[in-house]
Amino acid sequence: MSAILTRRVMIVGVLLLMFSLVATATVNAQDGARQLVPGEPVTGTLDAENFAESYIFSASEGDTITLRATTTDDLTLALLLTDPEGQTISAAGEDSAILSNYTLPKDGTYVVTVLRGTGAEGDASGEYTLSLVGDITPPATSSSANQDEGPIVIDGNDTYISLPQGGIEFQLTWFSAVDLNLEVRDPVGGALYFDNLTVPSGGEHGGNVNDLCDDATSDSPTETVTWPQGFVPAGSYEVIIYYQNPCTTGGPQTFELSVSVNGEDARTITGVVNPGQRYLARVELDTNRTWTLFNGGVDTGQLDLSRVANPFEAEIGQTYSDTITNDNPKDAYVFEGTAGQTLDIAMNATSGSLDTLLIVLDPEGRRIADNDDANDSTNSFLTITLPTTGEYTVLATRYGQVIGGTEGNYTLTIVNSASSVVDADDVSTTDEQPVTTTIDATPQGSIEVTLTWQTNADLQLLVRDPTGESIFDDNPNGLSGGILDQDRVGNRGCVNTTTSPISYIYWPANRVPPSGTYEVEVWYQSDCDDPRPVSFDLSIEVDGLLLAPPGATSTVTSTATAVGNRFMITFTYDQVSGTVALGDGGFFNMDSPSGLNYRDQLSTAQLIELNDTVQGRIDPEQPFAIYRFNGQAGDRIGIQVQRLTGTLDTAVYLLDANGVLLVGNDDVEPGVNTNSQITEYTLSLTGTYYIIVSHYGLQYGGTSGDYQLVLASFGGAASQ
Fold first, then answer.
1. Which of 3.30.2010, 2.60.60, 1.10.10, 2.30.29 would CATH assign to domain 445-588?
2. Structural domain boundaries of the chain?
3. Which residue of 40, 228, 387, 567 has the lowest C-beta tally within 10 Å?
4. Is the pLDDT of residue 181 over 90?
5. Three-state secondary structure call for residue 247
6. Mean pLDDT of the chain
7. What's the first-to-final CA gap in the chain, in angstroms?
């Protein structure tokens, strides 16, 4: 975890060496890159960790140069010269590598890479000297497409790309006299924040704004982090926004984060933070200069304990290595442990910007220990005494987990505590020894939804927030702050069932939930070999108020009698006024629209024709709409309902002239596409047909928005 007031990032020695060699001269505004100047030799060191280093120079077509790399150590060298179009030639030798009297083919920036003759293999190390000789003429400035293509520089595990049209700019703006702080971590391990204003990769922090509350301004205070035009690291840039001090204003704060790369138009995300919170985002910059701004959300501190599909089988006493990336933010290792056994577990980053996080799960999948930062480093270490005998899981991940932005290689070591743990930060000697933990007390929340029952059955609790995101087993952490407590997930998956299960979803007490309508759903997934009817209590509390009739101890008490039963209730919350209203609730079945009481509206249904497209709106006050059309026996039709606005989760049903259901559809692709469609249905009779458009939950549903209905003809009687 990045602690902005205490953490001082120590840049690995190879990067300090690399950027200590930056020449003071600049060519084509390539500030921050290592420039190679004719007649001015440079020196460097190569070893197993840093087996290649790169330099750049600019020259014109027809210039003749000689490059020479030499060493007096037990080291073989190789030289690579890459021209502005990416074409490479090489020269190698035992104690030197020479490229003599080479005529440069075109104008532009050239890249010189010195590397060990063995590449990444072997343990050879030593110093080298690199020199450039020749009569070089800088090329004329050009805005051509070829110049924009630029080279790629590779230094060990790190890659740099040229941004010739502009650098990188992060800009954080807020609108009150409070103290927010901006931190950006680059892909090569540098961190820019108010107390560390420069990094070797060339980035600079513009300074702390509103750090003194007495002088704080509400006139759009802004903090910036920039990299100049030229060479910058490619990869993932993690952004952390801290609500450091509420000063005398306090309350939730809206901010804007805008990012521009290589002179392109800025891209912006908007978020809300409460005092003490951290908000995460990231920028992914590819080697072809394409980039993406990802909106992560508030770091709630809730750990993602979900299992990994194919964990590694680990043995005590071994060290393992792998990579954490944005596409793979978590690895899992399983091992057999014995009750009373004490283990040391260490996770250490070996490249990139990786800020490690360790989590240990017991044989039942419950968290029993975790560690983020150990011994004033961003590596992780813990000592744990195993409570039972069985298969344990170690989750190797990073700060922020899914919404984080640091990446890199790591090593994971699991040893008996009496053994020696070797790690880069010697964290095994720290006095900070995490202790084995038990299940915590129920975390408090501004919204709390609790489900309890008294059988071994598996009931799933799900809350869909006003943004349309659902918090449940498959998505335990929502961007709006909603959390499924991983210590209270009921009898999930019928694993280690109990007759007093609890499921609990909440929004942390210091998080202001979004305004709007919330759906709360209870789904009877499995009886887990306990076929008794399931009586359950569902409680909803908002800002400490139980939404229930006077004297009641829960919001709803009901009974699910069969596997597959679904119960839904809604409530609406207004964060500005603090008001909350409970909606209707009950069981529903998406296979049939019968709960909608639509029959008395058939006579007034809107008339449409084949191949018509119409639009409408569904919300809790108007949960369905009815249309009618005339069809002939043999007509082949299709019906499509697509959400246009809002959170609407559509459903569609086709009825015959008597209002009897013929066919229906909820989701085009369950879990992926919540629009609805009926494809190529053949009408059996000539006459009137009805279409009902509704939403998930039918009369109890809470999603709302505009939709488009398309009634298509695919031939048959109507086409004759």
1. 2.60.60
2. 36-156, 168-298, 326-425, 445-588, 596-719
3. 40
4. yes
5. coil
6. 84
7. 69
pLDDT greater than 60 at residue 353? yes
Question: Does pTM top 0.70 for this prediction?
Answer: no
pLDDT in tens, 610-626: 999 999 999 999 999 99
Buried b (16+ CB within 10 A) or exposed e, 451-476: bbbebbbbbbbbbbbbebbbbbbeeb
- For residue 193, CA distances in Å to 197, 228, 234, 562 come to 6, 17, 20, 56
pLDDT of residue 142: 39
Residue-wise pLDDT tens digits, 264-294: 999 999 988 888 888 999 999 998 899 999 9
Which of 169, 172, 201, 205 is closest to 188 using CA atoms?
201
pLDDT bin (cut points 50, 70, 90) of residue 418 is low
H/E stretch holding 147 reads: helix 145-149
Q: Which tokens hold the place of 556?
A: 């709803």
Please tell us whether the domain made up of 326-425 is placed in CATH 2.60.120.380.
yes
| Structure tokens given for 581 | 């209203």
**What are the C-alpha distances in Å from 309 to residues 131, 171, 306, 397, 472?**
52, 39, 9, 15, 18
The residue to which tokens 């003809």 are assigned: 713
Arch. (CATH architecture) of 36-156? Sandwich (2.60)
CA angle 421, 427, 432 (to 5 degrees): 120
pLDDT at 248: 87
Report the alpha-carbon distance of residue 168 to residue 31 in Å, rounded: 13
297 touches 280 (CB < 8 A): yes
Q: How far apart are CA 653 and CA 674, in angstroms?
A: 15
Identify the H or E element spanning 16: helix 13-20
Domain 596-719 sits in CATH 3.40.720.10: no
What pLDDT does residue 567 have? 96
